[in-house]
Amino acid sequence: MSSSVITASIMTIGDELLIGQTIDTNSAWMAQQLNAIGIWVKRRVAVGDERAEIWQALDEAIVSSDIILITGGLGPTADDITKPLLGDYFGGKMIVNEEVLEHVKYIFQHILKRPLLERNLKQAEVPDNCRVLINKNGTAPGMWFEKKDSSSEAKKIIISLPGVPHEMKGLMKTYIIPELTTLTNHQVIIHRTLLTAGAGESFIAEHIQAWENNLPERIKLAYLPNYGMVRLRLTGKGQQGSDIEKMVDHKFIELQQLVKEWLVIESDEPMEKALGDLLIQKNKTIATAESCTGGYLAHLLTSIPGSSAYYKGSVIAYDNKVKEEILQVRNNTLKEYGAVSSETVLEMLQGLLAKMGTDYGIAVSGIMGPAGGSEDKPTGTVWIAFGSAEKQRTISFHFRFDRQRNIQLTAVHGLLNLFKFIQSES
Amino acid sequence: MSSSVITASIMTIGDELLIGQTIDTNSAWMAQQLNAIGIWVKRRVAVGDERAEIWQALDEAIVSSDIILITGGLGPTADDITKPLLGDYFGGKMIVNEEVLEHVKYIFQHILKRPLLERNLKQAEVPDNCRVLINKNGTAPGMWFEKKDSSSEAKKIIISLPGVPHEMKGLMKTYIIPELTTLTNHQVIIHRTLLTAGAGESFIAEHIQAWENNLPERIKLAYLPNYGMVRLRLTGKGQQGSDIEKMVDHKFIELQQLVKEWLVIESDEPMEKALGDLLIQKNKTIATAESCTGGYLAHLLTSIPGSSAYYKGSVIAYDNKVKEEILQVRNNTLKEYGAVSSETVLEMLQGLLAKMGTDYGIAVSGIMGPAGGSEDKPTGTVWIAFGSAEKQRTISFHFRFDRQRNIQLTAVHGLLNLFKFIQSES
Question: pTM score, two decimals?
Fold first, then answer.
């Protein structure tokens, strides 16, 4: 890997991350944004609301990275210690920033419509040695510090951001990404990812071993198994204007050929996006009938902006009565074969398509656990029906994970199977 | 804080975490488990599949923590470098472990039913200076190393685990938590969390300032704002058998009194769990009708094990036709007031309750963005109806975030409002 690539560390501050009370989704988003402008994230670190811990993590990050992005600890309450700490760390003193002060007053008066407290005015205090980034979506400003590393004499950039996701994102988009781009406009990091289904990572690795061994040093291959499928990602780092993008694209086409037997999609997008694109392309519509996934399949499909163009709706038939009354599953079918059976999901699908009038549908029923399994149908047993009014298929799975994971796997395999079904029609 | 508390670092290995391709949910779960047995997580760090980076992160973690838990990089492909690196780091050489070998063979033959490749046999190779932890859910074993820290002479424990969540969890539950518990049976970390709605964090902080300033040093208060609500968490650290648990509980009761005006639930659980518990307690049932949330509300409710006791189903009426045909919303209502209106969600709720026959229901309709807004009803406009066949209420919101966030906020506020509605009935 080229050593001329600009590197970043992402640092997250807050005890809630250390006790497992919240899951950090900010860092993944920030890493994507940095990668897109050619900055390589070397490390992510989460520390608690403890002065000594934050200080030490800063010391380490400044040595190893060119840019440090910090989120969290900027609120108005006593557990938020980031701002005075950064003032001390960079040897500044706290002053009131008039622009921030006006902004805080405006937000309380016109947006929050809440009384402005003394401690909220404190939000306008910033160290006098940082550049202030006005936060349009909240009261805590971003802060941009610069410092010479004592050992290397290199200039380091340290940016502090609020931890609230949409506030952090607003500051990243408005100030930080545009400015960092000017520093890095000679570097590029190229990712190309494809999705396979039907082969394990070992099997694929064996199959493409000779090709992988001959990859140029600047291009790295990663295997990302998930949901019983495997994503393959090529990453190339190099100078803008060099042939790195062309090289990665070339290798990516070779890879697609090598794994074509298991290839599902040639991009790094979730199944619900790939299925949505296919439906738009074919001008078709879809609906879903869910028992065990309880709305997760519908949620995945509708999490894609613009999905109302092809997604019409869903019947969540958690109770068998709903299966009978809205989806017209016959009482006899439920009695004879049970709610988790090929027969039931097929009737759910047929009832759904009749009710919703869509071109395609998916129907699922299963036992997600922890309770509800039997010897005959253990926890993790799932039946999925998919297809159109003319042609339907059913398939069964035996997942052996926890409830959340079983729900996710069922939904993703529903999407995958309908995707392959529609592809096979053309 | 007592310095006698045993500390841990959690280290995650894999480029996918640094480029934002995956979100790390393992670390939060591990931190919860460690906290529950009195181990304080000082730091979480994510590094890439780079030897030098992993080595340096290990050096730092060994100085600062007593226990280091490592996940990732144990797969059978070339990008997985953790195992040989740990062998080198601790000065061991690689040997075949017969028990792991038998286990790998068994898994391929009986569970995966795939041909066993040379590279899979490599999974049975481990450094000769670690204790092997057999992974019932997969082929990569866990590894337990011990090392004296050169500066402090203290014994450090370093444990390597696969990154696949259910494999990591299996090893944690079977070996690691039980064994670490024996090391820490004189320490406790107590968390108590409550949820408030209706006041900002600054306002609450002001209101409880005198009380907060008088908290004993061993007890810490944290403010966790999210979804327009604020969670308050008390954390106490101390010796088992000391009065720390009693002290935290005592302070927690005081806190509940102080914030009772805004108090929603006195525990750290999501709204869907609190609502579910309330429904079980009152022996009542619920159904949902969703437009803009597209199944997310149903997904939250059904993500709770045992929810089939009170949750009957949902109609996801993304298309207005579904609102009319299944939920019996009048065409005139849609024409006159629009799909996003008090009138429409009220009819959705009434139609839902008639169709599903449940005691309570929630109906939502809104514009989640990025497209779909108008001057009259901008993106983020949401109407929610909630109640019973006898009594319904509607409420509107104007969220101003991105699509995912708007969907989450709508769902959580639907749950919150029905929760308060049911509480107010008694």
Answer: 0.85
Whether the CB-CB separation of A24 and A168 falls below 8 Å is answered with no
Mean pLDDT rounded to a whole number for chain A? 92
Give the residue from A420, A402, A321, A283 showing the smallest Cα distance to A362.
A420
* Per-residue tokens: A346: 């097929």
Question: How far, in Å, CA of A201 to CA of A82, rounded?
Answer: 43
A395: tokens are: 């398939």
Cα radius of gyration rounded to whole Å, chain B: 26
* Ranges of chain B whose pLDDT falls below 50: 1-3
Chain A 207-246, residues with CB within 8 Å of chain B CB atoms: 212, 220-226, 233, 235
CB pairs under 8 A between A and B: 325
Mutate to test the interface with B, among A15, A18, A217, A321 (most CBs of B within 10 A): A18
User: Is the CB of residue A65 less than 8 Å from the CB of residue A110?
Assistant: no
DSSP3 helix / strand / coil % (chain A, rounded to 5): 40, 25, 30
Q: Which helix (H) or strand (E) holds B55?
A: helix B51-64
Contact A68, A9 (CB under 8 A): yes
CA A127 to chain centre: 34
Q: What is the CATH number of domain A271-425?
A: 3.90.950.20
Mean pLDDT of the A49-58 span: 94
Asked if A18's CB is within 8 angstroms of B42's CB, the reply is yes
- Interstrand relation of A67-71 and A155-161 (parallel, antiparallel or unpaired): parallel
Q: Which residue has the tokens 């709706």?
A: A313
- All residues at 6 or more sequence positions from A14 whose CB lies less than 8 Å from its CB, including other chains: A22, A46, A48, A49, A72, A73, A163
Strand partners, A397: A382
Whether A405 sits inside 8 A of B165 (CB atoms) is yes
What are the CA-CA distances from residue B79 to residues A11, A262, A267 (Å)?
A: 25, 21, 20
Domain boundaries defined on chain A: 7-183, 187-265, 271-425
- Report d(CA A247, CA A233) in Å as an integer: 14
CA separation, residue B80 to residues A205, A209, A251, B48, B89 (Å): 12, 14, 21, 10, 16
Sign of the torsion angle spanned by Cα atoms B132, B135, B140, B144: negative
Closest CA to A138 of A72, A57, A91: A72
Pairing of strands A40-47, A7-13: parallel
Containing H/E element for A206? helix A201-207
**pLDDT confidence of residue B400:** 78
Signed CA dihedral, B61, B67, B69, B74: sign only: positive
C-alpha to C-alpha distance for A306 and A136, rounded to whole angstroms:
27
How far is A80 from A141, CA to CA, in rounded Å? 14
How many CA atoms lie less than 13 Å away from B200 in the CB half-sphere?
18
Kindly report, residue by residue over B391-415, the tens digit of the pLDDT: 999 999 998 778 888 999 999 999 9
Residue A369: partners with Cβ closer than 8 Å, 6 or more residues away: A379, A380, A402, A403, A406, B305
Classify residue A355 by burial, with Cβ atoms within 10 Å: 0-12, 13-18, 19+.
buried
Residues 51-110 of A with CB under 8 A from B: 53, 56-57, 60, 64, 75-79
Quote the strand ranges of A368-425, DSSP E: 381-388, 392-398
Domain B7-183 class?
alpha beta
Helix (H, G, I), strand (E, B), or coil: what is residue A200?
Answer: coil
Question: pLDDT at residue A185 above 80?
Answer: no
Alpha carbons B175 and B141: distance in angstroms, whole number: 12
CATH architecture observed for domain B187-265: 2-Layer Sandwich (3.30)
Evaluate whether B187-265 and B271-425 have a shared fold.
Answer: no
The enclosing H or E element of A209 equals helix A209-213
Would you call B309 an interface residue with chain A, using a CB distance cutoff of 8 Å? Answer: no
